[in-house]
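Thread: Pyridoxal phosphate homeostasis protein, structure

OP (GT): Posting the sequence first so everyone is looking at the same thing. Length is 234 residues per the record. Can we get the structure tokens written out before standup tomorrow? I want them in the notebook alongside the other entries.
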Amino acid sequence: MERIQQLQDNLNKVQARIDAALQVAGRAPGSAVLLPVTKFHPLEDVKILQDLGVKAVGENREQEARDKAVQLPEMDFHMIGQIQSKKANSVARWAAAVHSIDSLKIAQGLNRGMELALERGDRTISSLQSFIQLSLDGDPARGGTPLGEVTPLAEAIEEATHLDFAGVMCVPPLDWEPERAFSQAREILSGLEQHFDRSLEFSAGMSGDLAEAIMHGSTIVRVGTEILGTRPLA
């Protein structure tokens, strides 16, 4: 019971921060949702979150997420970590959404994986919500798509049979102010919205910068430690 109350209190505190940031930004209540990040935390915590009304969580590691998804099929698991091309097929078997597509090769691997998963009966939903991770500073070591390649990659995702282009994900470079990163990412997203003539999602903001992300239009805020506590050692 103590852990249940702890997680409930933490969820309430983070949600209050999101609600306050939305109010300051002049945005509608509920226009940014919380995605708890459960990497390294046990399945029991994910079960508690589900019982507390959480519908989706974020994971960074393919095998860990796959194991959790098998044991808790009612929860939506979002892949928010970098994906190796050889793991794209596996990710497509369990992910409700992928926030970290950073190349055509990954997109094609996910699409093929979706096709195989549907053929095998591993999935019943025929499309995968797909986000492009932006590389604002062009550093390939941190993952993300170079800005000049974002629109062609978005078009390829849009044309893929089993992928739905949902929006973009942004992680501010280490030496950037969050305001600068989110402002630039918002401009890119706005251009994509004009290009595709529809609203898109903006996965941006974590514990330390969620207010800035929401000010620039974030619709999905990813928070881990502030909800679940310090991650156990892997």
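GT: Both are above now. Quick notes for whoever picks this up: The mean pLDDT is 96. The two ends are 25 Å apart (CA to CA).
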